[in-house]
Amino acid sequence: MAPAPPLVTATATALALVLLLSCVAVAKECTNVPTQLSSHTVRARLQSTPGAEEWRWRELFHDHLNPTDESAWMDLLPLAGSTTAAAAAEEFDWAMLYRTLKGGVGSSAAQAGASPSSSSSFLVEASLHDVRLDPGDEVYGRAQQTNLEYLLLLDVDRLVWSFRRQAGLPAAGAPYGGWEGAVVELRGHFVGIT
């Protein structure tokens, strides 16, 4: 059998390339177009309708529970090359390392009967009330102070107006206007959404 002429081969290749590119172009879905449910206002109205409870249950059906810290840690376990006793021991060591770091079972603090927040634990849970920005870190400290001063300038009733209305509570005063107005889709993170 004789080889195909170069013109036929080039034409077939070009046709296959055009067909492939058109399939890729048709298959590409534009995700920049927001759906109705991406609107906070539409979702809020939908939730306040009589069938909202059923809709909420259907939406939540697809949500999964957040994994526990330990299961998230175990997902980080390096993939083992085999299912031998050595791999099982490595998995056990990985879990014990997490529990030791967290101050749980297997740590010296837990074995001694001390609380997990004792000084012998590597990781200690801390209240957010105890967290402060380093005074030497001028930029973040100044930003935090600016945020605080801005929030103290705002009227509390106007600030929480949207939240109260969403909860069905009496909303005193008037909401903030402008881009944070109650009818605007995009609001600032201080005022919240409805």
Automatic annotation (TrEMBL):
Cleavable signal peptide: 1-27
UniProt keyword annotations, A-Z: Signal
Boundaries of every Non-reducing end beta-L-arabinofuranosidase-like GH127 catalytic domain copy: 131-192
Protein name listed in UniProt: Non-reducing end beta-L-arabinofuranosidase-like GH127 catalytic domain-containing protein
Species classification: Eukaryota, Viridiplantae, Streptophyta, Embryophyta, Tracheophyta
Keyword field contains Chaperone: no
The keyword Metal-binding is assigned to this record: no
Residues annotated as transmembrane: none
Family annotation (InterPro entries): Beta-AFase-like_GH127_cat (IPR012878)
